[in-house]
Amino acid sequence: MEIKRAVTNKRAVFLMFLFITVLLIMFGRMTYIQLTKEVRGHDLQEMAAQKYDRSQVLESSRGSILDRHGSVLAEDVPAYNVVAVLSPNQGENQFVEDAAATAEALAPFVGMDQLQLENQIQSGIDNGRYQIELGAGSRNLTYNQKTQVSELELPGIMIEETSRRYYPKQTFASHVIGQQSILEGVNHMGLEGRLNDDLESVDGHIEYSSLHRGLTAATDRITMPEDGADVYTTIDTNIQAALEQAMAQVEEEYAPEKMTAIAADPRTGEILAMSNRPSFNPNQYGEIENYLNYAVQDAVEPGSTLKMFTVAAAIEEGVFDTERTFKSGKYEIDLHSNPVNDVNPDGWGEISYEEGFQRSSNVLVSKLVLEDLGIESFYSYLNDFGFGERTGVDLDQESTGRVEPGRRSDAARTSFGQNSTVTPIQMIQAATAIANDGVMMKPYIVKEVKDSAGKTLRQGESEVVGEPISASTAQQTRELLRGVVDGEFGTGKKYNLQGLDVAGKTGTAQIAEGGEYLRGHGQHLYSFMGMAPYEDPKVVLYVSVTKPKLSEGDSGNDPVSLIFNAVMQRSMSYMDLEPSDEELIEEAEKQGIEMPDLVGEHPTNLAGLNEEQVVVIGDGSTIEKQQPQADAKLLNGERVVVKTDGNTFALPDMTGWSYRDVLKVAESLDLELTPNGSGFVTKQDPPAGTDVSPGESIKIEFGSRMELESMQVDNESEPIDEEVAEETEDEAESDE
């Protein structure tokens, strides 16, 4: 019995020690796991986070770029990406089973060769991929493209919603607005790049822990998204649209090597329009032929347009007498230099200074600089006018140009626009001094930057950068420039627009290539620097056309005047019709009218607006866009256009509308507007009632009031809107 008890005790002790050992091992293992948080190389925290922790991105929007009146030039819009789910774990009809059939149906919609797409999908299947993207053509689809892909009902083909940068006006001030790059490491262009820090947004996110049965832990963390700031430019859509249309016409008819044009308000320095050719549509990535903004980056010999500043300097120094005479034709500089010749080397005999300026005599300005004004004084005035230095306009990569001081021959040739180089933006800045009674204004294009809450972060301001000449000199210079356009011997008669009193100077600059000047018809840079009305200019406009294809009977003034005249007519009629901001505010304050915020409202809820003045587009139940924008100053009876969230958008009947109201429709529907003429709408294509989609083009014909009334009598249509008639009276009379 004692032996059995001893054996039992030994077993008990052994089991006790074994149990303790196991407990110690388990405790040690637990301690180890608690300290290292790893099991067999697997991070337990990471596994738990993957199972329970959830994170969701709260998307933000990049700031918009707008014109001076709030018309959108660049904005973020919804976009869609197509992806292919390849994993059978998704369930029946939720993954791609047949790569060949899928590629055959989908290839036309993602811009990819069918066989290439099939191979890409099959490779993903063979490699056990869960899902794959389908190349660049499958990204940033429009709503219509997304709908077309959805209607294919292809198993495993999924559509993800995202956003893309959209430029609703297509080829429109493209080098100014620029383009947001979609490529990693490639900088944005234009204002998109220069003001990226303002425009850029920051996505937010929400983090939470998911418990069983869909419950969430109370440790949620939310970081709110930060939308980018909106940039308001000084660009005027009305003037810019006229410029783009005219340049497109010249590009088609004359196929020049390049063109550039700038319109500005000389009283403030605000750039109203700026364009170049070749240009580009920023919606079409990778299709840019010309990256240079010639208006600020291209330094060229200006030709005879520079004579206006040479003569202004001479007037200021009291050495320009309109009645004084000189011998035209040829002028000897010195024994070591070639003589200066007029365009007519035989000359026009002994003529007055005034006639010499009208005829654009090289001899006249050379004589003024070398004999009357003096070389040192001449270069001092060029410096005062800002040549040879950057203007500081808020656009990237501005060139300085080069004023070439030196020998007598250098000064003589600089006086009539050879030898030295300038930029178009320098020409505009210098011209403001002549247009603005001697006060030179710095050009600028960013009017205001506002954050997403509407708070102004930065305000563009007019800045005086010099007074190179007196008011009386500026007035005398404008009178001489007027003579160039309407005088007996003027070279600028093609720019003599009835009722606008244009003043300006023509230019025909030689182009140096390979160390020598080109020769031949059309092998020049043709330009015009003009302003109107000459007594008190509201607009200065510079246009240059390089190496146009001219027929035998054409002159270099033909393509330049086609652009200048169209833009100046539109500018003057529009600026006469459109009240200034101050006048709008004053009028609105008198009437107590302010545009309400209708976005998000039902189309029948017009916040006190008269139903007859509101045009509703779309078959939806919620207003998505409105023109004018909320808080804008609204004139009594002004037409308001609202777009709903519907699926179809039919064009309204715009017969009798003004250009300004047509723009409201184009901007609301993101349509490309092609206007022709001025006054009232007489014809629209597509016709009223036609459903349109974003990016489509509409052509609008404008005519005089008489033409419209005649058409309405013939068609027994409704009478003209009286307010529209009053707004466009001057424009219509000009057409008649």
Automatic annotation (TrEMBL):
Catalytic activity: Preferential cleavage: (Ac)2-L-Lys-D-Ala-|-D-Ala. Also transpeptidation of peptidyl-alanyl moieties that are N-acyl substituents of D-alanine
Compartment(s) of residence: Membrane
Composition bias, Basic and acidic residues: 399-411
Annotated TM spans: 12-32
Predominant cellular place of this UniProt entry's protein: membrane
Entry's EC annotation: 3.4.16.4
SMART domains (UniProt xref): PASTA
Keyword Transmembrane among UniProt keywords: yes
Biased composition (Acidic residues): 715-736
Lineage: superkingdom: Bacteria
Pathway connected to this protein: Cell wall biogenesis; peptidoglycan biosynthesis
Region (Disordered): 396-418, 675-696, 710-736
rRNA processing in keyword set: no
One of the Pfam families matching this protein, by short name: Transpeptidase
Gene3D superfamilies xref list: 2.20.70.70, 3.30.10.20, 3.30.70.2110, DD-peptidase/beta-lactamase superfamily, Penicillin-binding protein 2a (Domain 2)
Record keywords, A-Z: Membrane, Transmembrane, Transmembrane helix
Domain PASTA: 645-704
Family: Belongs to the transpeptidase family.
Name recorded for this polypeptide: serine-type D-Ala-D-Ala carboxypeptidase
Organism whose genome encodes this protein: Shouchella xiaoxiensis
